[in-house]
Amino acid sequence: MTTVLAPVDLHLKRLFRAAQEYRASGYRVVAGPAQSELPEFLRGHEPDLIAIGDHDNVVVEVKDLRSVVGTRALSQMAAAVEQQPTWRLELILLPEDDDAEGPLPVASDVSVVRRLTARALVADSDYALIAVCAALEHAVVVAAAQAGIQLSSSLPGAALKTLFAYGLIDDAKYRSIEDAMRLRNDVVHGRRSDIDAGPWVGAITPIIEELISAS
């Protein structure tokens, strides 16, 4: 019989594993640290775990995709950590139940797209890829509305094919988007953790701008 872990159980299981791994590597680990246990630059934030090493210190956050996209708290903490030369942020993304695509937003506007794109440009690694793909999905909704195109499906893959059919996305851009979203899904489902998001953000951002600027 297969035991299905509840989201809270899965979060704690992955957090416990991270704590074990860092302790085994010689770090001093504090899970669920109190404010008094945090360095000054992290006061006011609530990290899942901190790991203190001789020359390397880590803030660990365990999140699912829905709690990551668009959250200001995580991006603010990432910015605070980035300013500290001996600290880094490790974002552990929990896998979803399956590989099915999440639906597009019901409605969106340019301000949402630009906000997500701005976060992708300053974020690190996994979160940057997630943010830029989220911005792209919102841009698809905006572009379809601006062009008066009725999307027959709320799934991103089908919607992108519709925009391609109407000429809003050319073949090269369509293939770049497909590759980026495939990598995003690999990150979200825990299959990849070695992706350099920078080139992908650089490739997708102009496509997003083109979509939301189309009349």
Overview of the structural elements:
By secondary structure, the chain is of the alpha+beta class. The protein has two domains: 7-93, 3-Layer(aba) Sandwich (Trna Endonuclease, Chain: A, domain 1); 110-213, no CATH class. It is 53% helix and 10% strand. It is built from eight helices and four strands. The chain has helices at 7-24, 65-68, 72-82, 110-122, 125-147, 156-165, 171-188, 197-213, and strands spanning 28-31, 49-52, 57-63, 87-93. Strands 1-2-3-4 form a four-stranded mixed sheet, sandwiched between helices. Helix 5 (125-147) runs parallel beside helix 8 (197-213). The longest helix has 23 residues, at 125-147. The model is unreliable at 1-7 (pLDDT under 50).
Topology summary:
Blueprint: H1 7-24, E1 28-31, E2 49-52, E3 57-63, H2 65-68, H3 72-82, E4 87-93, H4 110-122, H5 125-147, H6 156-165, H7 171-188, H8 197-213
Task: Looking at this protein, list some descriptive labels.
alpha+beta; disordered N terminus; 215 residues; 2 domains
